[in-house]
Amino acid sequence: MRRLQALLYPLLSFGAVILIWQVVVSSGLLAELVMPLPLTVAKTFYRFFASGEVFTHLWASLARVMSGFAIGTLCGVVLGVLVGHFDRFARLVDPLIQALRPIPIAAWLPLAIIWFGIGNKPGIFLIVIGVFFPVFLNTVHGVKFTSPLLIRAALTLGASAWTMMFHVILPAALPNILTGARIGLGLAWVCVVISELLGVTAGLGFLIWDAQAFLQTDRVIVGMIVIGIAGTLTDRLLLFVSSKLLKG
After folding, report:
1. Residue ranges of the domains in the chain?
2. pTM for the complete prediction?
3. Which residues neighbour 111 within 8 Å (Cβ) at sequence distance 6 or greater?
4. Burial class (CB in 10 A: 0-12, 13-18, 19+), 104
5. Mean pLDDT, the chain, as a whole number?
6. Which has the higher per-residue pLDDT, 106 or 70?
7. Is pLDDT of 216 > 80?
8. Class level of CATH domain 44-247
9. CA pair distance 4, 9, nearest whole angstrom
10. Could you give the angle at the alpha carbon of 194 between the alpha carbons of 132 and 188, nearest 5°?
11. Which residue from 53, 56, 70, 57 is spatially nearest to 188, judged by alpha carbons?
């Protein structure tokens, strides 16, 4: 019964959106030029998959997302542990990170192009920035709020600094780290669209920007749908890995 409900509720929500979409366009509230009918988008979606074009763009974006996600997560965890565990390091580094955090990703785009040129590197750089901050903040929170009882118990048993870090603090902070990683992965898919605005010839973001320039709204929506599917699947995969790590 629960499995049936888990399938039924998403179908109802998606079905309601498609129905409203159909009614709004059919009634003339939105011109079909700017908002194509669901059937038109479905046909474009099918053509993209049948031709294999969508996979070219998907793999290009996925490679950028996974590269930026891996680097951003690693940097966020390392700096988050250092800031969360060492007060002097926190006083030195945390104000700088907090000052950089509110800067929008799009504001980094000109510098990314100047520093790295065009191609994959500036895009990966933007994704790294997008992923880093949520992972960093959640890691700091997890480290700072490690149970004092666990720390005292480890010290009583004569745990070294490295033992304390890898067998007490990091395991205790792991749920927070994984939460930050999940938020960062979602932001990585947001950043990839921005990063593919200039200097690339393949990617879902490139597909969207290119279609927008020619008023091919059906292609824009197809690109958005594929990003939504890819983002959901990678999020589910991360949740699966997280559950295994937390059980272990």
Report:
1. 44-247
2. 0.88
3. none
4. exposed
5. 87
6. 70
7. yes
8. mainly alpha
9. 9
10. 35
11. 70
